[in-house]
């Protein structure tokens, strides 16, 4: 029977994959709770350290919960059990489950959030949308690549919807559904501030989350101007936009992280049992469309 690694060893391997130095200055990554000397036999991977996920970890007997989003991103003045964050901390400690967060450092990693999203959407020949300065090839925010076969924007949007976890929001699209597309940029999580990078990359479609009204409006207006300057119809202005739920665009990374941890531990002759949480932590629960034709 393989020996269980210590929490300190698991954390060292996770931080080798997702170096804390690559996290944004405002971020809060790394080990949140747990005894570094404790053995780790079961590791649960999830997007959010919410109560339902922590309960899942406790019920399974997980020794470590690895999440993408930090539990304590914003400062708190109390971790009393009656508070939101305090209840999470107490449940983790009393159940003997450590918590580790890899957030913006996992976004930028070579096999991080963006790489996993690109893979699940079928992109090939990928490269970072915004390479990290001075970093190794493959490290940086987002990915750009091409589809194995050109398709229509509508068909690709349907593929995105089928490839990602189902959420109340579903998939929103801005662009001509009949237009042919072959190149794609993706960025898991909030990608509104990277619309300019997507345009500069020259791709046909940009897939991300949390796109805002004004950013999308300006991007589509600019795309129409670009198309007109090239002698193309305004409706063919690119990039077209696909907006997914934040949780859904980051969820594919969990399988990458779990597989990579098992692979890295094998070099020590140690192993852990891993599980990817299937709890949907998207906060929205329903969506209602206006009945009848959409107003002109």
From TrEMBL:
GO molecular function, one term: metal ion binding
InterPro entries: DUF34/NIF3 (IPR002678), DUF34/NIF3_sf (IPR036069)
Binding site for a divalent metal cation: 68-69, 107, 246, 250
Gene3D superfamilies, A to Z: NIF3 (NGG1p interacting factor 3)-like (3.40.1390.30)
Entry GO CC: cytoplasm
Keyword line: Metal-binding
The keyword Lipoprotein is assigned to this record: no
Keyword Metal-binding belongs to the record: yes
Signal peptide span: none
Pfam families listed in its UniProt record: DUF34_NIF3 (PF01784)
NCBIfam families per record: YbgI_SA1388
The protein's assembly and partners: Homohexamer.
Family: Belongs to the GTP cyclohydrolase I type 2/NIF3 family.
UniProt cross-references to PANTHER family, sorted A to Z: GTP CYCLOHYDROLASE 1 TYPE 2 HOMOLOG, NGG1 INTERACTING FACTOR 3
Protein name: GTP cyclohydrolase 1 type 2 homolog
